[in-house]
Design a protein that fits this description.
By secondary structure, the protein is of the alpha/beta class. The chain has three domains: 95 residues, 4-hydroxy-3-methylbut-2-enyl diphosphate reductase, catalytic domain (Cobalt-precorrin-4 Transmethylase, domain 1), CATH 3.40.1010.20; 86 residues, Rossmann fold (3-Layer(aba) Sandwich); 95 residues, 3-Layer(aba) Sandwich (Cobalt-precorrin-4 Transmethylase, domain 1), CATH 3.40.1010.20. It has eleven helices and twelve strands. α7 links the parallel β8 and β9. It starts with a strand and ends with a helix.
Length: 283
């Protein structure tokens, strides 16, 4: 059995930056009070547990953060209203939002001030999507695939702009963009908000999928970009499995394949990818 590891597997720039900021806060804490994260700093349970051991408290609601505390904004961002509320309550805010997400927020802000309706390709329940929506000046519509987009009753008297969650499938986004542009009665501006790292990671996985018999995708089950990597690979005809850690590998099943691909989501630590590689090498 042989295997190949994607060069881009593991942390992206935004995740690395968020964790570096959190590490700096832990090391050089300049104000009293506990350190909080509103939602997981990144979507990886192993990393969240590691920081919990360092005293970082993860909460699900802003009301759980006491006045005078420190809060580090997660890589996915939070709504602009929540961030303003935290500041007004006297909470010391450290913004570790991924720069790509922040750029998408500002792009949406600029392009909806004239009344354009935001069409957002993304997962409605995802924290990044909630963050992006909060920067739209007016009406918003969210959908997570081309079929849902086609079901929308778009008004020819309104103007629209199309954007995407930064980790969405770029191929599907292009299909949605082409569909909307083909509607002669609709005025739509397309905002290119999918992160370059996401495009590169997905493109690399698609290319490797043509060379291997089976693919392993490592990352948190709550990580949308990791789940999407597995979906993109399988959509190109190669079977894939999504695992969080090396202990979840189906070792006996893997032995039947001649060549296996290995990649990982943008929030997957290098250590986890290395452990999976070592196990594959041992086979």
């Amino acid at each position: 059995m042989d295997f190949v590891r994607a060069q881009s597997a593991g942390f992206c720039m935004g995740v690395s930056l968020a964790l570096r900021k959190l590490d700096e806060v832990i090391e050089k804490k300049k104000v009293p009070g506990d350190i909080y994260i509103l939602g997981s700093i990144i979507h990886n349970p192993q990393v969240v547990r590691e920081y919990s051991g360092k005293g970082v408290i993860t909460v699900n609601a802003p009301e759980e953060i006491p006045t005078g505390s420190i809060v580090v904004i997660r890589a996915h961002g939070i709504t602009r209203q929540t961030q303003q509320n935290l500041t007004e309550r006297g909470i010391y805010v450290i913004d570790a939002t991924c720069p790509k997400v922040k750029d998408a927020c500002l792009l949406i802000d600029r392009n909806t001030r004239d009344g354009r309706v935001l069409l957002l390709f993304g997962e409605a329940s995802h924290p990044e999507v909630k963050c992006l929506l909060s920067y739209a000046a007016g009406e918003t519509i969210v959908f997570d695939n081309l079929q849902d987009c086609q079901k929308q009753q778009l008004d020819g008297c309104k103007q629209y702009c199309l954007a995407a969650q930064t980790t969405q499938d770029r191929v599907v986004f292009d299909e949605i963009s082409s569909y909307l542009k083909a509607l002669k009665h609709i005025d739509v501006t397309v905002l290119h908000t999918i992160c370059d790292a996401t495009k590169k990671r997905q493109g690399e996985a698609i290319k490797l999928a043509e060379e291997v018999d089976f693919f392993i995708v490592a990352g948190g089950y709550n990580s949308s970009n990791t789940r999407r990597l597995a979906q993109v690979i399988e959509s190109h005809g190669t079977q894939a499995i999504h695992v969080e850690t090396v202990d979840e590998l189906p070792l006996e099943k893997l032995k039947q394949y001649k060549k296996i691909g290995l990649t990982a989501g943008a929030s997957t630590p290098r250590k986890i990818v290395d452990e999976i590689q070592a196990k594959l090498e041992s086979l």
